Structure prediction request, 497 residues.
Amino acid sequence: MEAPWAVFDKLPLVMAELETVIGLECHVELSTRTKMFCGCRNAFGDEPNTNVCPVCLGHPGTLPVPNAEAIASIVKIGLALDCSIAPHSLFHRKNYFYPDMPKNFQISQYDLPICVGGYLDVDVDGTTRRIGITRVHMEEDTGKTTHGSASGRIHEADYALIDYNRAGVPLVECVSEPDMRTPEEAAAYLRQLRTTLESLDVSDVRMEEGSLRCDANISLRPLGQDGFGTKVEIKNMNSVRSMERALNFEIARQTKALENGEPILQETRHWDEDAGATKSMRSKEEAFDYRYFPEPDIPPIEPADAWIDGIRATLPELPRVRRERYATELGLKPEVARVLVADRASTDLFERTTALGVDPKAAANWITQDLAGLLNKHGVDPGESRVTPEHLADLIGMVADDSVSGAGAKQALEDAVQSGDGIAAIVDRLGLRQVSDTGALGAIVDEVVAEHADVVEQFRAGKESVIGFLVGQVMKRSGGSANPKLAQELLRERLAG
Prediction:
């Protein structure tokens, strides 16, 4: 067999232009009520080692029973990714001796996964790229190991603590083809996959909690060649930003090594967020290292076509289709539509707001710009926001009829984020309601005109720009409550006379 670095053997002395090859392995914890092969509770954040039983602890004589809801969820994921659902698939035992699985093997799938083929279309800089999906397979998650060291690294630890609550949680692995060429493409793929999974309601896909985890395989090769360079796997990337940073660092590291004539080692590397660098963990395992063999206690999975069709009928409108509908039918800008569908809570808020008769463009702009900025500022998760469709409908309506100014509306929205009070009550409490009564505002305008006769003369002499000063004086005298548009209209009437 040709060595993995053989693609570089015939390079000229001057280094050829290099191409990056990236593939992602994304692990998704399913939000089922119970674990994959037993009845233990599937929940994040419970006291360590409280959601365990003889099955997930690997006690002798116990038998695993597959979770039907988890199987239905992976079929749903496969259909959403345009995969083929295999008529016959098997569970295997993946053998290893890490302490995070007490039975010393993980129930997974090997050469007969449930979902095969498929793709995901992603947009990068206005261009659509189709990223192939190799397989989507089912397995059980492992326990969580905490290493007793300041850095959390194994080789620096004095001890390790293991929580088996996560051992046995249903885990779906989505393996892409090595079709990505830049960290930006990889980030777009991961965002699109996360949004798709969230829309299916099969997982909360919280990377910070580990319900969505991503490993990246990356190699370099001379541009225009089909062979692959030596593959390096990167782990411990807990956000999209971390993944981009890790990939960029690894591209620079491998490029420098190749330019210096140094071989790239096939290994698994750990992303150190604080150091901004990848660090060697261990040599990369091959499939034969795990000694896969069919799980003897679980029969093959052979889903009926009618059952698959029933699941297909429950698929929601997928994010890409929804984004295109927002752009074509509602007239939203593509970038606004993309941001809107990237988060399920924002999408739901938009749908419910427009159902109240609110202009879609106005609703989308308030949700993706002002509201998103305020939630980020105050550290509020979009799914836990106090702002309701009624808040937005009232806010947009009051701006449209000049009851509040744009600035006042933003102030009212920030109060709503924090208090949850109704918009009308906030506007009255903060004195944000604009004075649009011609009589009351006309009296203030007359006072300003009388006090600034010199500025009035400048305007009448042709200096149009001073109108802004006079409007400002009206706003100041009214305590900011005057309708600026009406104030300018009344000023022009007086000045013209």
